[in-house]
Amino acid sequence: MLDSNPDWLAHCTEIKDLAKSLSKQSSMHLDQASLFLVTDGQATLSINGHEEHIIFGHLIAIASGSVIQLTKTNHLDFSGYIISFNTYDMKMKSLCDWDVNTTTGYYVQRVPETVVADIRISLAETTDHLNTTIKQYVLYHLLKELDPEQQTDEYTLEQRIERTVTYMQQKYNQMMTRNELAAIAGYSPSYYSRKFIDIYRKTPIEYLIHYRIFRAQEMLLLTDDLSKNIAKKAGFDDVQYFSRQFTRIVGHSPRKFKKTVAQYRICFLSSAHAEIAIAFGVIPHCVVVTNSLTPRYQKGMFHQWGVTLLDTPQYVIPQDIVVQQQPDLIISANLTEDTKQHFRSAAPVLTGLPHDLNSLICYFGELFNKAGQATQMIDELTAQVDLLKNKIQNHISSNSTVLYLRVEELGYRYVGESSCDTAILLYKEIGLQMPAKLRTNEKSFNSCSLQQLEEANPAYLFIEKRVMDYYNADLSLSTLQQSKQWANLDAVKNKHVFYVDTGLWINNCSVFGKREIMRQIEQSILGGAYSTTQ
């Protein structure tokens, strides 16, 4: 995939904080080749006009001249590094271009968590004054992780067959034949068909028909277009043939499908989305969860309704396990393009969902044909928020400040006023005040030193000890609690420090989760009953 030459030398010119750089400007123009390493969280970026969902462990190689932009609804609940570098041709004794041999100008690869941990430790102190040795170590450590392009004659049988699947997915709305697909694989038509059936349990043409129907289902759910128009967009010239194939595969005609979607086997890749479905009376077939981040109330709810839980490590989507559940529909907020295409071989996929809770409720209300219930649900939540807001305003002074601080393995970050649903609840809906010194980059999780914390001196402090499968924040929390800055805080002196759960406050501010968060806020600020010590 990448242009690697034994005669060139790479020189790291700069390493910067990725989230901080993106929060300062909505668009970045890279004047050097760069590597982006995501060390925590996830975000959706536009890279050279292509939307890309990046998650923990992603290493993105990006060519010089590329343009990086934040998506409009993006919350910066992630961290990482930008490693910029130049390359020199030792033979020519001059600068040379280091290129990513892709049409998009970038390449995304997942690296092991051990590599991420090594880089995090190497850059633990600061990126402002790194010596050359550290910068070169980081650069070459990551360059070694990038896969070189594989030559065509080295492709395995499975990879050759996969190339034809990719071709079908990219050009599904165009005419194609078995002979054409066999030529792409480099096999005779009969041998190609036999091997395709061995891998995918159906003929190439039957696979293509299923893929087209899955895409047609997505269009039926996402648009109000007529079936005859969707048939053509999905690659069917004959509308009657499309209707017969749709009914055979889906079990309902295109006209009835949209009205009965709530009856299908739906796999949710977000427990927060599954929670909204249950609120509408739609029981998920299965839900992808991370056990350490699933709140107790939610586990009980899923168990009560007989929902199959697919437990998985953080930021890992168990593609094969999801497919084995044989879902009729897969729903996720965001997916990488590779994951999306993998799932589209098995079922229609709905992704790119709204981020804020009210928009999500409206989205699922439309999807499940329960728009009236969605309006009622939003009204009830709004009334509960207003009631809590009035209680708190009558209890604390108008100049009291509240800070939501995240404790991580290598430091601290405070949560900006619009950076997640819980922050919006605290600062926008309830109307609590962020310390004036920290009112910047409201969509970001912002770095916070102990000195900044002391200067901000909040009256109330919510502490989230970051839960991740890949690191432990116990030492950072202990360092915080034993510091002189901690002892000087008004929130500490007045016992207004409250410890909250990552799985609930960050991942599940949903229909039922939001009510639980409000209950904890009320107990904390009004009664101090939630000041659990850690």
TrEMBL record:
Domain Fe/B12 periplasmic-binding: 265-529
Ranges in a coiled coil: 371-398
Stored SUPFAM superfamilies: Helical backbone' metal receptor, Homeodomain-like
SMART domains documented for this protein: HTH_ARAC (SM00342)
Keywords carried by this UniProt record: Coiled coil, DNA-binding, Transcription, Transcription regulation
Entry superkingdom: Bacteria
Protein name: ABC-type Fe3+-hydroxamate transport system substrate-binding protein
Source organism: Cohnella phaseoli
